[in-house]
Amino acid sequence: QDLSLPNGTPVDTSSPASSSSLLNRLQLDDDLDVETRDLFVTVDDPKKHVCTMETYITYRVTTKTTRAEFDLPEYSVRRRYQDFDWLRNKLEESQPTHLIPPLPEKFVVKGVVDRFSEEFVETRRKALDKFLKRITDHPVLSFNEHFNVFLTAKDLNAYKKQGMALLSKVGESVKYVTGGYKLRSRPLEFAAIGDYLDTFSLKLGTIDRIAQRIIKEQLEYLVELREYGPVYSTWGGLEVELSEPLEGVSACIGNCCTALEELSEDMTEEFLPVLREYILYAESMKNVLKKRDQVQAEYEAKLEAVALKKEDRPKVPTDVEKCQDRVECFNADLKADMERWQNNKRQDFRHLLMGMADKNIQYYEKVCVT
Amino acid sequence: SRAVESQSEGQCAPVDSLWRRYSEFELLRNYLSVTYPHIVVPPLPEKRADFVWHKLSADNMDPDFVERRRIGLENFLLRVASHPVLCQDKIFYSFLTQEGGWKEMVNETGFQLKADSRLKALNATFRVKNPDKRFTELKHYSDELQSVISHLLRVRARVADRLYGVYKVHGNYGRVFSEWSAIEKEMGDGLQSAGHHMDVYAASIDDILEEEEHYADQLKEYLFYAEALRAVCRKHELMQYDLEMAAQDLTSKKQQCEELATGTVRTFSLKGMTSKLFGQETPEQREAKIKILEEQIQEGEEQLKSKNLEGRDFVKSAWADIERFKEQKNHDLKEALISYAVMQISMCKKGIQVWTNAKECFSKM
User: Fold this and answer.
1) Is the CB of B341 less than 8 angstroms away from the CB of A349?
2) Mutation to test the A interface, candidates B150, B173, B198, most A Cβ within 10 Å
């Protein structure tokens, strides 16, 4: 059976029956070593652009690859946040059955956060870099046409406009009907994933709050420490024999302050953003699950409609079959993505929490030395 | 007021123990301060809990506070017992050994009569003209010392409070990690054990801060010592003022005598004016006055001599004790600072331990 979507665009995967082969392909990719990777993407070098209408930041996106899909082995282009956002939307549209990695938050409250401060720009750059790397690592997403254009096109805006025109005519993206269809029964595994995601985001949210609270307490502690050190110095000025040891204590406390400051900074810049990223991830995953539910509901409804008609033809109409295929595709993709996501997440957290532990250790070691 | 067990120290008395109230300690100290004004008398620990950080109960009945006060009182007795002059005092000895009637014994010494009135002392401080410069400097120093130590103790209390907060919030991690581990497969064990370490971390602060209180107490002792230093300075000022007044009085009497004898009025005096206006006194009256004055002058000169001697003796012995005190202070505070540093290092080592353990748990996820 030639499987294609109603508008004629071929579906990404070859056929639902070969979803297992898809899984196999994915497994193979999992075993790939770094050395056998054939696509490398980096985001760096943020630059501020001042124009008459607005001021914004662009980042350099560098690509190195040996893939046939790319004309050249190396590319270097400049992209701004808008472009990343566009890419993500396009990926969601064209690969609705896959989990698309999250982007850092789009809107920042002006006045609270300085959009052009070094820390903010750097945090964002790191998140954007991670975003692209995750796509690069994905066996299906990395071959996406839009991704390719994003990495290579000199003038992305022209392509965007082109894409818009096409969209209005052909409707490149598959619009899944939302609403109207009620789900009969959710397969257990997806229900479990849903529950897991709920608890997961809850716990991460709590950890985020705790971490913020700790940072706040640490800063208040720092304030007091900053007053504490100089008092010893004052006392030292009063004494003769004791002045050296007192000055010594004062200096030590000063060092403690510095070390503590660094610890808090690290927590804010490295630890918290990753937590938030995973919360966003969980959100988008829940959306994908909802879509999956919708597809299944549609399929079941159509099946029911056919049964009610009580037609002679035992053959199920193509569109219903297509629905079924979609559903199974979806399920397979989702499962595959979930597994890889879990793996990655575990690595990420391991790295993250170890990092946190390390930082604390460093802090204490610094204090010890003084 | 509560009872405190007191053990007799050092002296060749049999080991004895009896009960003393805080008020009796106060009485002892008052007695010693009055009887030995040239000595920097060791201070008592605070009566009420001061410089507390919020977790430490400000309640005088709190067992931790009571214990620390007990240690403070013991320390006071040790200080007195190890002082070359004070340890020989009979009242002190009977404080340690005599069960009943000690209070009466102290009151019988009549030391309260010897005590200088506060007002007198204040007056002297303002009016003294030529105090020994060293004492003036010492007074200045003790004022500054008191100010800086109380500032230090206040800030330290705030620091302790904040640090407590930081540690305790980490305990929340323990709970969340535990809950989170319930929904994870491979990450579950790692998270669970890491959570346990977070709990340990949060709990460790209680002992750490309890130990730090000991350091604070050592500082407090010297805070109160500053007051004792000032007392010695005040005594000097009082004696000096007394001396100056006596000298002044003597000078004016001598002058009066001379005027009467020679009949010349050198300075304006109301008496002189009245006698001019209302007639001179008879030679017999004048003779009588001169005689009285000459007696007074002789008395005055002897008194001045002895006061001078007293004053010089006081300065000498006071300064000797002050030097002793300085050495004691430098030694004690150095040790206190060192032990504080050791405490901090041990706290950090514990921190390193906990986070290293946590890190290991994470690495096994």
Assistant:
1) no
2) B173
Give the CA distances from residue B162 to residues A225, A246, A345, A367, in Å, rounded to whole numbers and listed in that order.
9, 23, 34, 17
- Judging contacts by C-beta atoms under 8 Å, the chain B residues touching residue A350 are 187, 190, 362-363, 365
Residue A182 pLDDT greater than 70, yes or no:
no
Q: What is the DSSP string of B233-275?
A: HHHHHHHHHHHHHHHHHHHHHHHHHHHHHH----S--HHHHHH
Taking an 8 Å cut-off on Cβ atoms, the answer to whether A199 and B144 are in contact is no
- Closest by Cβ to B355, choosing from A210, A224, A361: A361
Say whether A354 and B362 touch across the interface (CB within 8 A): yes
The residues facing A110 across adjacent strands are A113
**Terminal-residue alpha carbon distance, chain B:** 58
Q: How much is the ipTM here?
A: 0.81
d(CA B76, nearest CA chain A) in Å: 23
Q: Sketch the domain layout of chain A as residue ranges.
A: 36-158
- Compute the distance between CA of residue B8 and CA of residue B203 in angstroms, rounded to an integer: 39
| A58 backbone φψ class: left, alpha, beta (φ>0; ψ -120 to 50) | beta
Domains of chain B: 19-112 (3.30.1520.10), 121-261+291-364 (1.20.1270.60)
Domain A36-158 class in CATH: alpha beta
> How close A240 comes to chain B (CA, Å)?
9
Contacts B216 to A, Cβ<8 Å: none
User: Which residues of B fall within a CB distance of 8 Å from A192?
Assistant: none
The DSSP output letter for A147 is: H
For chain A, give the percent of residues with pLDDT over 70: 62
Side chain identity, residue A69: E
Contacts of A238 in chain B (CB under 8 A): 141, 144-145, 148
Mean pLDDT lowest among A307-316, B91-100, B142-151, B332-341: A307-316
Give the model confidence (pLDDT) of A231-278 as tens digits.
988 998 888 888 887 887 887 788 778 777 877 777 777 777 777 877
Q: How many residue contacts between A and B have a Cβ separation below 8 Å?
A: 126
pLDDT at A71 over 80: yes
Tell me whether residues B190 and A235 touch, CB distance under 8 A: no
pTM: 0.76
Whole-number percent of chain A with pLDDT over 90 = 2
The 10s digit of each residue's pLDDT in B257-309 is 887 777 665 556 666 666 665 556 677 777 888 888 888 888 889 999 999 99
